[in-house]
Design goal:
Rossmann fold, 21 strands, alpha+beta, 2 domains, globular, two-stranded antiparallel sheet, Tumour Suppressor Smad4
Length: about 350
């Protein structure tokens, strides 16, 4: 039974919920019920129905996500309303999707579906974990687990490309209706003294991460934001020597690193097939290192980066790992790190895989 309260309860896991935690709207079998702040818990008593929570970022793609979601709702009600309790939760700021997801899982949701781009998906994935452990359903004996779903409606949908999914919301609804699950791996990023951070697509270091940081400031330009971000990142860029430790082994020095990418899936940056051998279900991460690249190398080899044939290029290496630690030799503290397009700060970092960590509707 899925239960939602819009006010912050006395549970410890909700203590960090932001002050902007807003009312949520529930669509149950074609009806919309607005749960007002302070209104208490509302129960949906239909044990034969699946409880689905749709986490929607209305600001995604410069507001286009909200418009497309509104158009999709009638079809969603028609296709799923007879078999599911549908809860629509609109995010109201950064990290809100994480809080919504954690509460939904604890309250027994059968699935939490990210509606938006890779940024929304990234937050929902992080909501599946709390203090380094998977979030558990408080109402079960552990036999029930929430699944992750995706309706791609944002600026970027790179994770969906790995599965060959079209940017078609109706097709995504059909996947959710069928409810077929498969286990997918999740990457986790650790830094001493900080909480673990999770990613499902690609994490990256240095130039590409810096480009992603700048690209996030130009989302209003759509996919063009990646090009603008890359151009800005090139200004003043210098390749750096890095130390790398794979699977807990010995430290290795990689000179003049331009970018280092850790892929759980294949694509990032608006369709660039950066880690072409990665697969979210093989229990490994693919690490691709670009060394001693100049600005003109990207221009001449850009087509290879997009079609995934760059592994044959000089100064590009690839390896499959379970964990990798990355440090800058000079320890300048200025090497950018991002995951799933979200800026995380700077090196050093440890990346590792959690095999089969989440059930995904596929």
């Amino acid at each position: 039974m899925l239960r939602y309260s819009c006010c912050i309860s006395n549970r410890s896991y909700e203590a960090k919920q932001p002050s902007f935690y807003r009312a949520q709207r529930r669509v149950c079998s074609g009806r919309i019920i607005t749960l007002c702040s302070g209104g208490g818990a509302t129960a949906v008593s239909s044990p034969r129905l699946r409880d689905l929570v749709f986490v929607v970022n209305p600001q995604g793609a410069n507001g286009r996500t909200a418009k497309e979601w509104k158009k999709l709702l009638p079809y969603l009600r028609t296709r799923l309303g007879e078999d599911c309790n549908i809860c629509e939760s609109l995010t109201s700021g950064p990290s809100h999707a994480i809080d919504i997801t954690r509460e939904a899982i604890r309250d027994g949701a059968d699935a939490v579906i990210a509606v938006g781009g890779d940024g929304t998906l990234h937050e929902v994935v992080n909501g599946f974990f709390w203090e380094g452990k998977p979030v558990c359903n408080l109402n079960s004996e552990g036999s029930h687990s929430a699944a992750l779903g995706l309706i791609p409606l944002g600026t970027g949908s790179d994770f969906a490309r790995t599965f060959g999914w079209k940017n078609d919301p109706c097709e995504a609804v059909e996947r959710i209706a069928k409810g077929i699950r498969s286990r997918v791996d999740v990457g986790v990023i650790d830094q001493e003294g900080r909480d673990s951070h999770y990613f499902i697509n690609v994490a990256d270091v240095h130039l590409s991460a810096k480009a992603g940081f700048y690209a996030s400031k130009y989302k209003k330009f759509g996919s063009l934001c990646y090009v603008i971000g890359a151009l800005q990142a090139f200004m003043g860029h210098h390749n750096r020597d890095m130390r790398i430790k794979v699977n807990g082994g010995e430290w290795e020095v990689y000179p003049q690193v331009t970018a280092l990418c850790v892929g759980n899936a294949k694509y990032f940056g608006g369709g660039m097939k950066i880690t072409p051998n990665a697969s979210p279900g093989n229990g490994n991460l693919e690490v691709v290192v670009l060394q001693d690249f100049k600005w003109y190398d990207f221009i001449l080899k850009l087509h290879k980066l997009y079609n995934g044939t760059h592994l044959s290029v000089n100064n590009v290496s690839s390896r499959s790992v379970q964990s990798i630690e990355v440090e800058e030799v000079s320890e300048s503290g200025s090497i950018y790190v991002q995951s799933d397009g979200e800026h995380l700060g700077f090196l050093p970092r440890k990346f590792q895989v959690l095999p089969g960590a989440i059930d995904m509707i596929s």
